[in-house]
Design goal:
The chain has 473 residues and is of the alpha/beta class. It is 42% helix and 12% strand. Helix 9 (259-271) links the parallel strand 9 (242-245) and strand 10 (275-279).
């Protein structure tokens, strides 16, 4: 806590609460209020400064709106660990900290990037668009496959961050990766069709398939993901025409296909005339020095490549892209766009395009990955050998292999202790599916909150293990 903070409040003009928020922002930038420090309670600060409680309350609310604070009911207000220029510390002290009072539950279900405090950056981007007279598309319907400028930025981003060269004309702007998956599956398949996928697959794909009346057929996996021989058998047995796969940091298991495995999968797809839907939401988290190329580069004639900007930069953008190979009927995809959303929202895409051009998008993505590396180190330290080694050094989620019974007990134990995990059956597609619990690292507001949650998960894993070892069912 910082109980003796006595800011030098700027003189008028401007309302007093806004000037107090300005003083807070100035002292954060000067290092007087370091990231993670707790501000004094509003009543105490009001008394110390001779101000009304209402003024201080409005100042704290304004500071939170600017992305300077994190407010937690029952705990207080804390300076964000990340500064407005997105600087992030990358070290981690594994010594457990004293848990702060906790209210409600901690969400480890949602697989989103860590919060970067981007409110001010968003405000600046909108102001710059307005000053340049470029906001008009944001209040109009965007016809077809999206704004040309956004698709050009998407092509630049895919080339820069995914190593995938594509023509902007072959890109479809989507309302996030989930919309892209639903769009593609609904355009390629008809109700009753079978779609092949990993035996444990992304919950969003399973939800889309169920909604569209499609049957998912799980394919056996090993430490590299899909087994080519199992895929070949499934394709021959079902005569399916579509394969959905997450080859990099597979969701939920984090497994990553090697180059030779991707080549084998592409070979099987060619032999059985499978169209591949490659969900590569986590490609940017993989080490650029080690990651293999996307399957879309190995089999460009039969692969629809799905890239989610929301997963690596900002969930609220609701922005994703799909590349279209020449074999896919474009008109069917365009009908799907009109049926499922009519047009993509423009403003998030316009900001993204601006950030790609000025380097902000790269800075945010680098910061997200740096913070993800810190959080993964925390998970390794706390969960230890219970956690399967992830397929990259910056995985936003980890996989804990457990029997179905132990997985359910772990979920229940964690929930009673205040941590929400994805239900074990949510990702399962077949009886022989990979069994375990996915733990997402990005949703907690800060590292101390994540640390508390991981200790709870560790205890929840340990408790069912003891029960099974002792024969208690």
């Amino acid at each position: 806590m910082t109980p003796l903070w006595h800011p030098d409040i700027p003189p008028p003009p401007g309302p007093l609460y806004a000037r107090l928020a300005d003083a807070l922002e100035r002292d954060i930038a000067a290092g007087i209020l370091p990231g993670g420090s707790r501000l004094p309670p509003q009543r105490e600060l009001a008394y110390a400064l001779g101000l009304s409680i209402g003024t201080v309350t409005r100042a704290y609310a304004e500071a939170e709106r600017r992305g300077l604070l994190l407010a937690h009911v029952g705990r207080g207000s804390f300076i964000r660990d990340t500064s407005p220029d997105i600087a992030i510390a990358t070290s981690f002290d594994p010594t457990p900290s004293t848990p702060a009072p906790q209210t409600g539950t901690i969400d480890l279900r949602c697989n989103i990037p860590p919060r970067m405090g981007l409110t001010r950056a968003l405000e600046r981007a909108v102001a710059e668009l307005a000053a340049a007279g470029q906001l008009e598309p944001a209040v109009q319907y965007i016809q077809g496959s999206g704004l040309r400028s956004v698709r050009e930025a998407g092509a630049t981003w895919l080339a820069r961050r995914h190593g995938l060269a594509c023509d902007p004309a072959d890109l479809i702007q989507c309302n996030g990766g989930q919309h892209a998956i639903a769009l593609v599956l609904s355009s390629l398949c008809r109700p009753g069709d079978t779609v092949l996928c990993e035996s444990a697959t992304f919950y969003g794909a399973r939800t889309a398939a169920e909604h569209l009346g499609l049957t998912l057929r799980g394919v056996a996996m090993d430490e590299q993901g899909l087994l080519p021989a199992a895929l070949e058998r499934a394709a021959a047995e079902t005569r399916a025409r579509v394969l959905f796969t997450v080859p990099t940091l597979q969701n939920p298991t984090t497994r990553t296909m090697s180059l030779s495995r991707r080549q084998d999968i592409a070979r099987v797809a060619h032999q059985h005339d499978l169209t591949i839907v490659e969900d590569d939401a986590y490609y940017t988290y993989a080490d650029p020095a080690d990651r293999p190329p996307p399957i879309a580069m190995i089999a460009p004639d039969r692969t629809l490549y799905v890239a989610s900007i929301s997963k690596g930069i900002l969930p609220g953008f609701r922005l994703g892209f799909v590349t279209l190979p020449p074999t896919v009927m474009r008109e069917r995809i365009m009908r799907g766009i009109r049926a499922l959303g009519y047009c993509p929202p423009a403003l998030g895409g316009m900001i993204f395009a601006r950030w790609v051009a000025d380097g902000t998008a790269d800075a945010i993505a680098d910061a997200v990955q740096a913070e993800t590396a810190v959080r993964l180190a925390m998970a390794r330290q706390i969960l230890g050998s219970a956690m399967e080694p992830p397929g990259a050094a910056r995985s936003p989620h980890v996989w804990v292999p457990l029997s179905p019974l132990a997985a359910q007990r772990t979920l229940n134990h964690a929930l009673r202790a205040g941590v929400e995990l994805t239900p074990p059956e949510a990702c399962s597609v077949s009886r022989d599916a990979e069994s375990g619990v996915r733990v997402c690292l990005g949703a907690p507001d800060d590292r101390p909150m994540l640390e508390r949650a991981l200790h709870i998960v560790r205890d929840a894993i340990h408790e069912p293990a003891l029960s099974e070892a002792s024969g208690i069912i």
